[in-house]
Amino acid sequence: MTITDNLRDAAYIAIGMGVIGVQRAQVRREELRKQFADQRSAFESVGADAVKLINEALKQADARISPVVELLEAQVDTVVDRLPAQAKSILEPAHQASKEARQQLRSRVATN
Length: 112
Known about the structure:
This protein is mainly α. It is 96% helix and 0% strand.
């Protein structure tokens, strides 16, 4: 064997090892992509279940709290009606703003 034959064989071996390395990297990339996709779908599923549980808990809490809030609002309305005009003009907008904020919160929770 001559030096050129040895160099050619070494070049073929180097090229072959490079091709094998690239193929292994591609296989590993695909394995990682699939593993990531599986983990992502599992995470999304758990997240969706958590959102459902939270929404259900919020709805139950709202159902339990609503009667108490309505009773308190009725009492506040009674107090507001008895106040002098100047105090009433201050308290009434604040009370209305709290009702609107509560309604906005309910609508946002109900849509999720």
